[in-house]
Batch of 4 targets.
Target 1
Amino acid sequence: MYNKQEWLDKIDQVIDRGPFKDDWGSLSKYRVPEWFQDAKFGIFIHWGLYSVPAFANEWYSRNMYIKGSEEYEHHRKTYGDHKDFGYKDFIPMFQAEKFDPDEWVNLFKEAGAKYIVPVAEHHDGFQMYDSEISKWNARNMGPHRNIIKELEDAAKKYDLVGGASSHRIEHWFFMGHGREFDSDITEEEKEGDFYWPANREPDHHDLFSKPTPTRDFLEDWMIRTCELIEKYHIRILYFDWWIQHSSAKPYLKKIAAFYYNLANEWGEEVVICYKHDAFMFGTALVDVERGQFSDVKPFYWQTDTAIAKNSWCYTENNEFKKAKDILCDLVDIVSKNGNLLLNVGPRADGTITEEDQAVLLEIGEWLKTNGEAIYGSRTWRFSWEGPTKIQEGQFTDSKDKVFTSEDFRFTVKGDSVYVFALNYPDTGKITIQTLGVSDASKLPTFCGIIDSIDVLGFDEVPQWQRDEKGLHITTKDVHSDKPVVFRVKMV
């Protein structure tokens, strides 16, 4: 039986006995681990009850209870009145009968990913793992499988790092619209129920201050998170938004101290990903949703985005990005001191779409040839060159970026600077101004001595020369619709 007080005591005990305390000053001693900075590329997985209706996006559980929404009308037409068929009635339909964790993780490894972050609990409140906190989980009902553990075990088998994400805190209000009419969400909802607490959704201007979640709910959220950490030994914890709510701050500090101290006991280094300044800067990893920074940052960060432009989960109408566009984003992000976490949305039966697979395998083929310029690399003195400006901020990835033959990105590793030509011209001629001969009377741009230049994945030895206008490279047989990478070896 679940005992809340025992869990609260356990959390305090772990904090008391470890080097990290639940205050920002202590947590600021945290450092993003080297293994994460070497990894560069991971896979996010949105899979849950929302994959059953597969309509619109993963917010179906909220929107189906909003009168007049497309989801509301679709639900009534497809499944009947909400009082007779509510969101909970998707649980027995979620069978995951074709789910093969080894098959998934092998695909992700072939794609070149180094870590995975499946959604452990989305806003809908259905846990994808065996939990003592709630019976509403995938081990106890639906597929009757411990999805998170199976993926963690498969990740270890294929030498990938396993993580998980928690979107639980939004459950405070996520199902609240169901109280506005005759639905299966009733006033009798109490702690432990699937829909609990189903409160009123905050107005936009009060989003992070009012209404304040109750202590019972915040403790429940903290305990669920700490159980996920301890029970499944995850090394990456991703938080979705709304944890920046003022009432969540004390609990975030406890979660971080608990996690960092347990990791210290495990002898491992871990990562917490957050958005919207929910954590004090320097105490965890900055994450940008569906967007990126326009320039290099002195701190390490991550972008999370999806292969599908319109949804995080599988829907029948997903619009898929092209592999070449995702690779350009990956290169841009890595050159600016970040990682890319790329989302896949499997079908309810546990299969991954042919479109998703094709994109992942195309990315993987490129990384097999060019991965040395990505994995384990670091930012160079300059991260980019060219006329195309990256729009900074979240939710900026809906439009394809159009790069020119003058757009380059840079990384460095060992004795080499790697130059990524984002749009290599058919002429085979490029000029990289940043690597030109500097005027000795002025502040030099670059004074290194180049030993040799080769192009990854091609046998041809490029012709090159340097002058004050730049490094001029010429090839005859190098052609690709994806970034072309030159290894510039230094003396």
Target 2
Amino acid sequence: MDSRQFLADQFTEHEKTVADTKDAVSLSFGVLAEACTRSLENGGKILFFGNGGSAADAQHLAAELVVRYRTNGKALAAIALTTDTSILTACSNDFSYDDIFARQVEALARPADVAIGISTSGNSPNVIKALEVARDMGCVAAALAGRDGGKLKGLANPLVVVPSNVTARIQEMHILIGHALCDVLEQRLRTGVSV
């Protein structure tokens, strides 16, 4: 296949996913933005977690809030539960890989917090377990997923589902949605703009 045509096809698939996602997530995104706004206004924090590319997204989004997305201002409380190799490896070794995020949620989360699990399939056992713990602790247990939402349906609320079966396209939408979340939180909490 010609590489130019291959790239054009990738863009076409991406553009279709963007259009489909824009309509599919508008309501759930608004609920997520409100929950995060309330949490941060009331001294809470946002905990991000996921596996693989979703782990990278968790770190990326936490950094945008703590440091800045577009504008300078007060740091916004966020943490990625994907970054502490000692905790991740100890928990995997001493308990199980399914516990790596749940254990951190148990230790670090408080009822005013928002836990955001990221799973393209919606079926990652360690994301599900952590959100169950978060919910039981009185946190907002939210998630970004793809496909049909998987096992996160009925657990995560809000659940932002990208309507695609292609992992790469789902990940592209997750970071777009994540950036939009950082932007709205920054405008509301750093600059005082009503969004």
Target 3
Amino acid sequence: MSIKTEKIWMDGQLVPWEDAKIHVLSHGLHYGTGYFEGIRCYELANGRSAVFRLQEHMQRLADSGKILGFPLPFSVEQMCQATVDVIRANKLKACYVRPLAFLGLGELGVYAPNNPVNVIIAVWPWGAYLGDDGIKNGIRAKVSSYTRHHVNATMTKSKTSANYVNSVLAKAEVKKAGYDEAIMLDTEGYVSEASGENIFIVRKGVIKTTPLTSILPGITRESIITLARDKGYTVVEERFTRDELYIADEAFFTGTAAELTPIREVDDRQIGAGRRGPVTEDIQNTFFDVIKGKSGEKYAGWLYAV
């Protein structure tokens, strides 16, 4: 898969892909002082295109900048319009959208309050993050030896670039061991999230997901909670342990990239029937109807027209 396209939006302008460059001494490259979002644009059933929950994603991007102390220099509305512009410029009907803000060239020390905040938005075609087969039949996961961030060791509510080194290490560890995704525990030993996804379990008809403690407040996570409750399911946000995950009837990941991906196995233990369960399939089908614009007016506000 190539991520090369014709244009990238950079600091307020559409520039050729080859010209979207930064200096090697940019602060963000050295210290991870950046924050980003992962967003998807879908081709709808009617042939038009829409970005899923674009405003919420851009608000979270702005929130990340506020948390880190170097604010986004563009408004949420400007970022939404820029996203539409870059999708149209690249003539894409469906794509992944990556906004990124980072400290640019200036001082090169840990404290660099006067460095500019540079912003880019790139788009490219991207299929199922954990594989088309995984979407249908589920994936194999393993609990990583790497612990998820403590809330006072870093800012867990900011989608900070530096935070993802933790995810890179965890993902590499389990991939080398033959698994598809890493599950990470928090500093007290409870299930936190995956390397880039939130996690849900289903047991005795109740859906449970990790509360907003050590985890990033996932926008897809919040969407799935809403859809499940609207369908009449009981959803609780409550900490759970690794062994509770092992004996779940069903389990699944949610995220922009992963969408809603079932988990069929954790630490070589089969989850439920070892395939996508009925609750997971029901919510997954509802979610896919929403992102394809098939759910009428009820969730139409989640789709930002391109």
Target 4
Amino acid sequence: MTTTLSVRTEARVTVVTIERPERRNAVDLPTARALYDAFKRFDADPGADVAVLTGAGGAFCAGADLKALAQGETGRFEKDGDFGPMGPTRLKLGKPVIAAIEGPAVAGGTELALWCDLRIAARSAVFGIFNRRFGVPLIDLGTIRLPRIVGHGRAMEMILTGRPVAAEEALRIGLVAEVTADGAALARALALAQTLAGFPQTAMRNDRLSAIEQWELGEAAAANEIDRGLATLASGEATEGPARFADGAGRHGGFTGSPTGR
């Protein structure tokens, strides 16, 4: 494992941390490869249900390492395949990822956050298409994901102006799910991850994939949802849940998964 990235586990949660605080966790090519490899391993790991992506030293990610690019770094841009310039941004995982964001998540760091399913931001968090200032394009699917998450009009304003967006505004426009006190984003993301890991996984994963896939399917989206739902029913998970409800679980506002999370 590269020294610019660390990976640890907490129960059924995988925590991936970018470890380049001296560069505000800007991603060079080795770090991009390490991020890509770490999330491929997470997706294939039967012992992991949810991942959390964060950055060390009070910063999430300042984007691509422009110094490395200026020094002639190559191999980052591939038209085909699922490796993105920031690493995992073209991967379609079968399990959710939560971003825990402190400080800057700008340029490619915004795109990395957009790749995650949920974003928890500390009050210090700042988003923005800062690469607008340097003529560097959005090439980690930011022009696709940002309009889908915040709406076309707001996305266009962010993309064209490149202005900073603070955490409270990000919450208001739907860019993040929650805002925490500074220093608390990772703890909140971990708690949320443990909640997701406690739910029956087949239904959650299939519903998540259907929500992601519907963007590309047009009229076929409804059929895809049915196919995903039938796969959940075939797993038997949807039989266990009603049986637990009949025995009293989850009534009167209770909202927990199965005892094992499976």
